[in-house]
């Protein structure tokens, strides 16, 4: 839905007494998927309206000092700010039921997410060159950085998916924000490094199953198309 | 009560916050400290090839912050509302980002890598410390200067920052000048009786 649609819908909701208990949500980020996509998906999966604010890069410097950590994404819940993408993801996932079915399961979701974060840090030099944000030897970086990082992390994921019975989730038996995090990354990788993950068939199968979740499929089809 | 085992190296590092949560809550646990030379042999038997690992009635959980958050939730050190918990998480993630920024300096300062320690301290560590501690100082102030970063009781981010300050002050002189409220959090936390007791008796690392 367009931002205007979301705004009008939120306004309508605020007029309906039985719905006025629902907070108003605003998510602010750059016009890409990257660190805000999981949050956007959680809103859509839960059927909860939110203002999907996409800030052009040129407008960011003026906005930056007004944010708690000088960073995006930023979630606002009834005007109260919350920074840091994983804190936002976990908060929304808990509210909407995508954080695992027990405290221990929720902790495993967190563990996978943090391992993914570590992997992304390792991958960063390659990623920056692939996205055109830095100069570098793509093939050398692939060999030195990309492949070792991939093998370590996706080796873990492949085993997790298999041990979980190849049931379409990386932990437990219901959709969690860790599933969404991995699926979105696999999407980005498939755009820039088509055969990079071919050695991890159970992971790819799990991602296919995740992406076939009806509301998610719907969102993926209608969202703005971005390279990452 | 579940049987808890926390496995980590013989140092504070990423395991200390979880040890402190056990001690603060008075919960018994097996504080399993792995000598470095044992690690290569057991690494492949761990879920992520890393420590710390928490074992709860035989079920394993990796990743230091997942462990800390799980224990904090079990023992009541994760904030008093969902939004407060989320702010503890946000600060913890900011802490992690900051640690990643100064990691090259820490590697050199602790003798794990070659480099110009003085240069890295001035060009990398000090600016990163200033940037992150400015956020922490403001957070402590906005929280009412009550000796906690979030809410009005101890949360695990208080523990993470306090322990980290103990690491930095041995490496960077006057690192916390200009951050009195952050220092006040550390003072409050480390004078909490159960924690004070643990700090006094724990292995010196």
From TrEMBL, chain A:
Entry annotated with the keyword Transferase: yes
Keyword annotations of the record: Transferase
Keyword Transferase in annotation: yes
Pfam families: GST_C_3 (PF14497), GST_N (PF02798)
GO MF annotation, one: glutathione transferase activity
PROSITE patterns named in the record: GST_CTER, GST_NTER
Gene Ontology biological process: glutathione metabolic process
Matching CDD domains: GST_C_Sigma_like, GST_N_Sigma_like
Classification via InterPro entries: Glutathione-S-Trfase_C-like (IPR010987), Glutathione-S-Trfase_C_sf (IPR036282), Glutathione_S-Trfase (IPR040079), Glutathione_S-Trfase_N (IPR004045), GST_C (IPR004046), GST_superfamily (IPR050213), Thioredoxin-like_sf (IPR036249)
Protein name: glutathione transferase
Residues covered by the GST C-terminal domain: 102-228
Family in the record: Belongs to the GST superfamily. Sigma family.
Catalysed reactions listed for this entry: RX + glutathione = an S-substituted glutathione + a halide anion + H(+)
EC numbers, comma separated: 2.5.1.18
Domain GST N-terminal: 23-100
Lineage top rank: taxon: Eukaryota
UniProtKB/TrEMBL annotation, chain B:
Annotated GST C-terminal domain residues: 81-205
Catalytic activity: RX + glutathione = an S-substituted glutathione + a halide anion + H(+)
EC number: 2.5.1.18
Key words, A-Z: Transferase
GO MF annotation terms: glutathione transferase activity
Chain segments annotated as coiled-coil in the UniProt record: none
Gene Ontology terms: biological process: glutathione metabolic process
Enzyme class: transferase
Superkingdom of the organism of origin: Eukaryota
InterPro entries recorded: Glutathione-S-Trfase_C-like (IPR010987), Glutathione-S-Trfase_C_sf (IPR036282), Glutathione_S-Trfase (IPR040079), Glutathione_S-Trfase_N (IPR004045), GST_C (IPR004046), GST_superfamily (IPR050213), Thioredoxin-like_sf (IPR036249)
Domain GST N-terminal: 2-79
Protein family (similarity comment): Belongs to the GST superfamily. Sigma family.
Protein name, UniProt field: glutathione transferase
Species assigned in the record: Pristionchus mayeri
């Amino acid at each position: 839905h367009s931002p205007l649609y979301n705004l009008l819908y939120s306004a309508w909701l605020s007029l309906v007494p039985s719905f006025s208990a629902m907070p108003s949500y605003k998510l602010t980020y750059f016009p890409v998927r990257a660190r805000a996509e999981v949050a956007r998906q959680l809103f859509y999966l839960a059927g909860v309206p939110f203002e999907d604010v996409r800030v052009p890069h040129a407008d960011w410097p003026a906005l930056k000092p007004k944010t708690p950590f000088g960073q995006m994404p930023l979630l606002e819940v009834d005007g109260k700010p919350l920074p840091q993408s994983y804190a936002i993801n976990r908060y929304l996932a808990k509210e909407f039921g995508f954080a695992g079915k027990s405290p221990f399961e929720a902790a495993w979701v967190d563990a996978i997410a943090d391992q993914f974060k570590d992997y992304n840090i390792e991958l960063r030099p390659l990623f920056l060159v692939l996205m055109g944000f830095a100069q570098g030897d793509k093939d050398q970086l692939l060999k030195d950085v990309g492949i070792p990082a991939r093998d370590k992390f996706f080796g873990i994921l492949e085993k997790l998916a298999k041990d979980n019975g190849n049931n379409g989730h990386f932990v437990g038996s219901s959709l969690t924000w860790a599933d969404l995090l991995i699926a979105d990354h696999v999407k980005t990788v498939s755009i820039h490094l088509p055969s990079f993950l071919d050695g991890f068939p159970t992971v790819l199968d799990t991602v296919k199953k995740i992406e076939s979740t009806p509301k998610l499929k719907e969102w993926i089809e209608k969202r703005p198309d971005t390279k990452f | 009560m579940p049987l808890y085992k926390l496995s980590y190296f013989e140092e504070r590092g990423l395991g200390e916050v979880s040890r402190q949560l056990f001690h603060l809550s008075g919960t018994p646990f097996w504080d399993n400290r792995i000598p470095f030379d044992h690690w290569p042999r057991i690494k492949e038997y761990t879920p992520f090839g890393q420590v710390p690992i928490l074992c709860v009635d035989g079920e394993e959980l990796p990743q230091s912050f997942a462990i800390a958050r799980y224990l904090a939730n079990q023992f009541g050190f994760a904030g008093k509302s969902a939004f407060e918990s989320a702010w503890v998480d946000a600060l913890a993630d900011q802490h992690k980002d900051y640690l990643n920024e100064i990691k090259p300096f820490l590697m050199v300062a602790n003798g794990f890598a070659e480099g110009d320690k003085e240069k890295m301290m001035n060009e990398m560590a000090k600016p990163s410390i200033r940037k992150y501690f400015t956020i922490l100082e403001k957070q402590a102030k906005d929280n009412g200067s009550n000796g906690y970063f979030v809410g009005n009781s101890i949360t695990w981010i208080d523990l993470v920052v306090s322990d980290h300050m103990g690491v930095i002050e041995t490496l960077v002189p006057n690192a916390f000048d200009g951050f009195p409220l952050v220092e006040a959090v550390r003072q409050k936390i480390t004078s909490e009786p159960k924690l004070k007791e643990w700090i006094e008796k724990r292995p010196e690392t």
